[in-house]
Write a structure and sequence with these properties.
- The chain is an alpha/beta fold.
- 21% of the residues lie in helices and 23% in strands.
- Strands 1, 2, 3, 11, 12, 13 and 14 form a 7-stranded mixed sheet that branches. It has a 5-stranded antiparallel sheet with strand order 8-19-20-21-18, with helices on one face. A 3-stranded antiparallel sheet has the order 5-4-24, with no helix packed on it.
- Helix 1 (18-28) links the parallel strand 2 and strand 3.
- The structure holds flavin-adenine dinucleotide.
Length: 447
């Protein structure tokens, strides 16, 4: 028998990640709402959640990453890729690349045309503006005073300036901001940081709201499934420190467990394709074929180039003196390579000129970080010793689609392998940047 979490709640938010922190903040702003937020991970009291390059230690680390892997994929020469997702308050915003990127206006307008009311560019832009505290100040595109801090990067590299100049010579244009609805162009990415520290959703939205008496956060809580009564989500069942428990909401349960976690919870609750759930012995509550389909991501290919005549991070790192200066630069000015996003310069361009808008993305960095994206990368161990810089190329859009489904009924226990079977649905690879079909398949999870 599951014990009942004491307290009456109007809303239960599942997942204190990027979305969950914002939702909990907004709901608890009304003192009449009693809000419970449940998070599988722990607190962010580790220095590497705050120093920007900490992603090197947080990604691929079970302390902060769910450690999902894709199933081996024939289209990727049998590779199984690490598929990082944040598991800590702040969720993926605590371990991600910090690049501020809204996407293109035409994508949102396309969703609206498909029937998704409220998701056109003109609908979402005011929400983005309200959310932001943008270093460029108030404008038709950006807002100030919101919880989501966005700043200019605190370093630049000659090698990247040269790449930008070369791209301009090839006819692309330099733009100061990728987030105006049309991101075609070249520029340094803006980042979710405040004065040289990572700005996660937990810092921006959850922590300030936790002072409110009507918001309660429970960590180390693995939500198993929804309690569905009379067709309504009345609460959740979960496991906290090995004990089964449940909590109930008078109002709503809001699933913010991310693109993987929310699907897991829904499937375990009997919401999803009936033909997937039946073999697992899960009674279908709602047969929804789309739940677990059409996961889209941006698979990238990385090429590393040796360069001469210009400094890259590699040689800075391998010089003891320069490394010391790098540390001092961060300690005293919160500047320099320790504030670096994994990619610093972006180029969005069309894969061919018949396209109406940018279809390809190239990201460049001043230092190659070898290893699969998402594997744990050690600064010291993995930086190539030669002067080099990488180029990541990918196609944007419905390029990389996968399905996600669970393979057993209950939630995972500790140290258990819990693969998510998934089959590739579609992978379109037309275009100059990626002429071959590339696909990412299943997402598995090992703990
Ligand atoms: C390595 C990496 C780099 C990225 N780089 C960028 C970037 O530079 N720019 C950008 O815009 N986006 C980037 N993203 C994507 C961006 O971070 C995500 O799209 C965004 O954070 C997703 O927010 P979310 O709230 O949906 O999920 P998340 O932020 O992942 O939050 C989900 C939360 O739910 C919790 N949870 C899951 N399952 C359960 C459960 N059963 N019970 C309880 N809690 C649960 C998780 O622990 C997590 O805290 C990156 C993502 C990753 C992983």
């Amino acid at each position: 028998m599951a014990k009942r979490l004491e307290g009456d709640f109007d809303y239960i938010v599942v997942g204190a990640g990027t979305a969950g922190c914002i939702v909990a903040n907004r709901l608890s702003a009304n003192p009449r709402n009693r809000v419970l937020i449940l998070e599988a991970g722990g607190s962010d009291n580790w220095i590497w959640f705050h120093i920007p390059v900490g992603y090197l230690f947080a990604i691929g680390n079970p302390r902060s990453d769910w450690m999902f892997r894709t199933e081996p994929e024939a289209g990727l020469n049998g590779r199984s890729l690490a598929y990082p997702r944040g598991k800590v308050i702040g969720g993926s915003s605590a371990i991600n690349a910090m690049i501020s990127m809204r996407g293109q206006a035409a994508d949102y307008d396309h969703w609206r045309q498909l029937g998704l009311g409220g998701w056109g560019w003109d609908d979402v832009r005011p929400a983005f503006r309200r959310l932001e505290d943008h270093f460029l100040g108030e404008s038709e595109h950006h807002g100030t005073g919101g919880g989501w801090r966005i700043e200019a990067p605190r370093l630049s590299w000659k090698v990247l300036d040269a790449v930008a100049d070369a791209a301009e010579e090839m006819g692309m244009r330099k733009i100061p901001d990728f987030n105006t609805g049309d991101n075609e162009g070249i520029g340094y990415f803006h980042v979710n940081q405040k004065r040289g520290r990572r700005w996660s959703a937990a810092r921006g939205f959850l922590k300030p709201a936790l002072r409110r008496p009507n918001l309660r956060l429970e960590k180390d809580v693995l939500v198993d499934r929804l309690i569905i009564e009379n067709g309504r989500a009345a609460g959740v069942r979960f496991i906290q420190r090995g004990e089964a428990a449940e909590a109930r909401a008078r109002g709503e349960v809001i699933l913010c467990a991310g693109s993987i976690g929310s699907i897991q919870v829904l499937h375990r609750s009997g919401v999803g394709p009936a033909d997937w759930l039946a073999p697992l012995g899960i009674e279908t509550v709602l047969d929804r074929q789309g739940v677990g389909r059409n996961l889209q991501d941006h698979l990238q290919q990385r090429a590393i180039y040796k360069v001469t005549g210009v400094r890259t991070l590699n040689e800075t790192y391998y010089s003891l003196v320069r490394r010391g200066l790098m540390g001092l630069d961060y300690a005293f000015r919160r500047r320099g390579p320790l504030t670096m996003a994994p990619s610093q310069l972006g180029i969005f361009t069309r894969s061919d000129q018949r396209r109406e808008r940018a279809t390809g993305q190239v990201r460049r960095s001043a230092a190659p970080l070898p290893g699969d994206h998402g594997e744990r990368m050690q600064f010291a161990a993995d930086l190539a010793r030669h002067r080099a810089h990488p180029l990541d190329a990918g196609r944007r859009g419905a390029f990389d689609r996968a399905e996600l489904s669970i393979d057993r009924r209950g939630p995972p226990g500790r140290r258990r392998r819990h693969p998510h079977h998934a089959a590739v649905d579609e992978a379109a690879g037309a275009g100059a940047l990626s002429p071959r079909r590339i696909s990412a398949g299943a997402v598995g999870w090992r703990r």
